[in-house]
Amino acid sequence: MGSVSLKIGDGTARFKRASWCSSSLNLLMLFSVITTNLFAWYAFTYAPKNQILHHQMPRNLSLISEHVSLILKEIDSSQKKLAQMENELLEYESIDLSKPNIVNELKMFLQHHVLPLGKDSRTGITEMVASVGHSCEKSMDLLSQYMNYKVNGQCPNDWSLGQRLILGGCEPLPRRRCFAKAINKFGLQPFPVSLWENVSEKIYSWSGLGCKNLACLNSKKLNRDCAGCFDIVKGYETQKYVKPRGKNDFLINDVLAMGNGGIRIGFDIGGGSGTFAARMAEKNVTVVTATLNVDAPFNEFIAARGLLPLYLSLDHRFPFYDNVFDLVHASNGLDGSVRPEKLEFLMFDIDRILRAGGLFWLDNFYCSNDDRKAMLTRLIERFGYKKLQWVVGDKINGSGKLEVYLSAVLQKPVRV
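The structure corresponding to this sequence follows.
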């Protein structure tokens, strides 16, 4: 099993993979349930061998009632103890606001705020509860540093600290009562000219990054899908999705044709500098691109192109309702470094937001070995998707070695 996110109380609880401790706990809970049920059965069915006289019945019923009452109390006590043991084994505990290292702003944000007019008749809630990633408990020093600011003043220039917390599972971050730095976004081009024209580098935030300009970024391979991906004027980005470099590279027009004209909105996972969304925008398809600012100002660059960035990690449940997207495109976000358990949870979330009949475009998934490819194939087959296109091909990496990649276009079935 992989990590799971659940909304519990003040925020999001994240659970680790099951271990031998949790397995033992499950056996203990099963034994407790069986034992208490046997006691209850014995209490209700036991009778003396001698014939029970009529005047003894009230006394026996009273004894049975006492037995049952004691058993119920024991069950309740056992359940509470087992729940406490489970929380300890799974490392789940609520954020202790009494700790001295927690700043006041964090305490205020996490406090429950009772509705002034009582229970809301429409939603049924009686208080407003803050939402914050439960793994933040493990990074309280960093979180307190993040929440240490002047109220109504300028926010610290600490976006990299916030991203560090997100990458550590502290997501969503708490809200803050300070003003974010507002950079003058001068020179922005109108849409659709903005899709393929660079603007001044001064509109991006370079703090916390190794590179301080686009030329530096274009000289590096930031990830498997981003080698020179910030060159949208003369680089390969201008040919991506319209001119293939290999059999694994599908073209926008070909994939849209598989959707029979029903592709209107899409979601791109790990979309680099936003080129996929830009090409789709040219086809009147609106695409939301999910990415973080790892080693580059991806979100700001995508927004400067007139596209929609979503600052979100892959550990976070997608903030969309079920069955809303016509197309989901996944590339760098599903590379070979993702653990099978994590990939399985991610695939189920992708399936959740993709409508029936919608297309899942798996774009150059890196298969580090045959086992990895077989694992992904078995996982996809579990969903019952129709394989509209399925290509396994080799590419030569920077070291001159062959790497295996899988590209596919899959159609989600109708489930009733």
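The two ends are 27 Å apart (CA to CA).
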